[in-house]
């Protein structure tokens, strides 16, 4: 078996494997279609393995092709990270860390973490992206992000997690609402109100905990709006479209038109967790994890 395979062959193979279309892959790679076909044929000949079935203008991966796509997708991402890290070292940087997070993590957790980490590692480049839980999981699996901050009870196989914050919930009301911190006794007082909640797609497990709060209070909520952004919730509450329940860390005292009432007498709590891919080889990640743990 000949192994005269170069990095470009692997990238060409992945482009075709992802599109299952030679013309579209060639356009993506900015090369000619005949040239791409020749490179794939050279790769197959070099490996002595058939990677694609081509018939009736359809392209399908063989079993060997499916295996190679899965393994290369993971390992080329690691290789790209290694090469990028080497370039950063050449530029005088220790490395780069890509973080994903839900909005509440930016209130205290991430700023505090980065301030502490920067003291011992001042030459790190950071990329910060606010993402919902599902997008973070996808980003962690593909290693597009190195660490995420999510509100999930369970994570997929291959990912690791550690809780960083367990906190109560808060009721969110317009400032002029008849119920306020001085006369609030239980959520049952608000059973006829419309509620604005985080969308179940934000996190199904988080949504289940919130529904459990209502169940324990003896009623099913009238949900008028779902959203994935706290700012949208506050704007709707402010304009009397309903009331809401959010994690305590999302309190924003600078919004004078709404009031937050901590629900400290209920048993439910929400957990913010740091999540990462155990196969991620970014050397900066382990340093950050040691600080988190």
Structure description:
- By secondary structure, this protein is of the alpha/beta class.
- The protein has three domains: 79 residues, Arc Repressor Mutant, subunit A, CATH 1.10.10.10; 93 residues, Periplasmic binding protein-like II (D-Maltodextrin-Binding Protein, domain 2, 3-Layer(aba) Sandwich); 100 residues, Periplasmic binding protein-like II (D-Maltodextrin-Binding Protein, domain 2), CATH 3.40.190.
- It is 40% helix and 24% strand.
- It contains nine helices and twelve strands.
- Strands 4-3-5-12-6 form a five-stranded mixed sheet. Strands 9-8-10-7-11 form a five-stranded mixed sheet, with helices on one face.
- β3, α5 and β4 form a beta-alpha-beta unit.
- α1 packs across α2 and α2 crosses α3.
- The longest helix has 28 residues.
- The protein is elongated, with a radius of gyration of 25 Å.
- It starts with 6 loop residues before the first helix and ends with a helix.
Helix tally equals 9
Beta-strand percentage?
15-25%
**Rg for CA atoms:** 25 Å
Strand elements, count? 12
Q: H/E order of the elements?
A: HHHEEHEHEHEEEEHEHEEEH
CATH superfamily of the largest domain: Periplasmic binding protein-like II
Task: Describe the main β-sheet briefly.
Answer: 5 strands, mixed
* Distance N to C terminus: 47 Å
Name of the CATH first level of the largest domain: Alpha Beta
Q: Share of helix among residues? A: 40-55%
């Amino acid at each position: 078996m000949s192994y005269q395979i170069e990095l470009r062959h692997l990238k060409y193979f992945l482009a075709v494997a992802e599109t299952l279309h030679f013309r579209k892959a060639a356009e993506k790679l900015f090369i000619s279609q005949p040239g791409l076909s020749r490179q794939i044929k050279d790769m197959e000949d070099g490996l002595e393995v058939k990677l694609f079935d081509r018939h009736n203008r359809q392209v399908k991966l063989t079993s060997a092709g499916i295996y190679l796509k899965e393994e290369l997708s993971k390992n080329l991402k690691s290789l790209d990270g290694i090469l990028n890290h080497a370039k950063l070292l050449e530029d005088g940087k220790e490395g780069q860390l890509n973080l994903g997070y839900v909005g509440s993590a930016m209130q205290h957790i991430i700023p505090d973490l980065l301030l502490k980490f920067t003291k011992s590692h001042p030459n790190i480049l950071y990329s910060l992206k606010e993402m919902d839980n599902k997008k973070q999981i996808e980003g962690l699996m593909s290693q597009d992000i190195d660490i995420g901050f999510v509100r999930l009870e369970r994570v997929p196989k291959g990912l690791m997690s550690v809780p960083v914050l367990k906190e109560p919930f808060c009721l969110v009301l317009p400032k002029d609402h008849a119920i306020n911190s001085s006369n609030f006794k239980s959520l049952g007082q608000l059973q006829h109100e419309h509620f604005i909640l985080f969308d179940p797609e934000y996190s199904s497990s988080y949504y289940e905990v919130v529904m459990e709060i209502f169940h324990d209070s003896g009623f099913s909520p009238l949900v008028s709006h779902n959203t994935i952004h706290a700012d949208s919730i506050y704007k709707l509450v402010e304009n009397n479209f309903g009331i809401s329940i959010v994690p305590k860390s999302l309190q924003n005292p600078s919004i004078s038109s709404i009031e937050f009432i901590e629900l400290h007498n209920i048993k439910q709590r929400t957990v913010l967790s740091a999540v990462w891919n155990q196969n991620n080889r970014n050397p900066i990640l382990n340093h950050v994890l040691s600080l988190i743990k």
